[in-house]
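It is worth pausing here to work through a concrete case rather than discussing structure prediction in the abstract. The textbook approach is simple: state the sequence, then state the predicted structure, then interpret. We follow exactly that order.
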Amino acid sequence: MKIAIAADGRTLDAQVSYRIGSSRYLLIVDSTNDEFDVVSVATDAHSRGAAAGVVVTAIGRGVDAVAAGYCSPGIVSQLENNGIEVLTGIKGTAKEALGIYRSGRTDSEQPASRNSPSSFSVDRDMLKHAIARSARQFTALLPVLLGVVMIVGLFDSFVSREMLLSVFRGNAIADSLFGACLGSLFAGNPINSYVIGGELLKYGISLFAVTTFIVSWVTVGVIQLSAEMAALGRKFALLRNAAGFLMVVPVAMLTVVIVDIVTRWLA
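Step two, the predicted structure:
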């Protein structure tokens, strides 16, 4: 029987990786004689797709089980759908993980040594890690939330209904083009465009105009065009923004049609 152990090193004395997606190596071990091969699954321990690489390697090598500290539900599902057993919650060295795998195979009185995603036990280290990560994400999001609150306040204070209606006159095509131009001139967090779009709808501006505004806000950026040209090249930046602007109105109209169909269907 063969087991793939996500490890931080190239030997059985290496520590089992905390997350399967951050493992640098996969040790393909023959549990009958301890012979193993070393497979490098990622040059960067934090690169995207590392976990998917582990799945591909495990399936390609025909292993019977995979062991790691943690596997996401999606990865577990992919492995189990291919007939591969998944052992999670594993700590210590790869040699110790191999021992856990063997004990689960040979000693029916030790089912607790085999950790699985369906277990209701809570890994305290994993819980602390999740809480800390959530706190960091909330801290990073806090300035955006404060910005949204400020934008709503400024919009209500300085933009009147009469001002908006003098610009958006109810003509679907003209309003859509103006919304596209207005959105193209600005650049910012997409969340802000949703807030402004909601305020525009509240003042009676057509959904066509609001949708073109949001789409152009997200896809076109005249203000940041110079920076984009410096980073990605003049030709690419100009073509991308031009293509984005040309697609704004068709995408907005298609969106409005779909919304109308769904609304009528649900009514």
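Step three, interpretation. Residues 145-266 form one domain. DSSP finds ten helices and five strands in the chain.
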